Amino acid sequence: MTKDEALFEFLLRTGDNGLVLAQRLGEWCGHAHQLESDIALTNVALDNIGQARMALTEAGKVEGKGRSEDDLAFHRTEMEFRNNLLLEQENGDFAQTITRQFLFDVFQFELLSGLKSSSNEFLQSFAIKSLKEVTYHRSLSSDWMVRLGDGTELSHDKMQNALNLLWQYTGELFEKTEADDILIADGVIPDLEKLKESWDDIVGQVIKEATLEIPDTKGFMATGSRRGEHTEFLGYILAEMQYLPRTMPEAKW
Length: 253
Hints:
By secondary structure, the chain is an all-alpha fold. It contains 11 helices and no strands.
């Protein structure tokens, strides 16, 4: 694998993460339990769309096959997507959505912090811009984790159930491939193993403050997205998201 191929894989993963998470959060528009949360989740979705557009546009340039951000977003199959499994999971209730957001926000914040010193100029600028947004995302989801986890008996139980359900998808965030090894060696991306140490520390602190417990998965962690293997949920997301551009491929937005 060449360095450009490795960079393409990483950019694709980054763009797909933002795109899929934005689609999930967009499902809350007009349905959240209060107006403030409705607007907040919609804004987070828009931030993720913006990050996805930047990453996928750069991925198309690095690939060198003339594919645009729209080509990559709307004209790839499920097995060509590289988003983490965590992000395609159903919204469920508000507790599940917030828990999913929190687990990813902490990872994203740590990753972008490391990318600020990347040897790649695009990733540097991407990190600096995106970190401003993700800092807010992390603050929002962390606050809700504590408010609900250390709230009523019902809210506590819902948060713990969400954590129990989603924890199995967190190990994949730090899974390394050949592409990652190449980029880490060249100083393009930070070492994922070191990121996990920071992630464990921050997530553990918030979970403790929220009076929740880290689930015992007995060593099992779901995996597969790096190879294009996904849960059944991604297919439904893409069917809705890609319907119009696949039906009318010549349409101009």
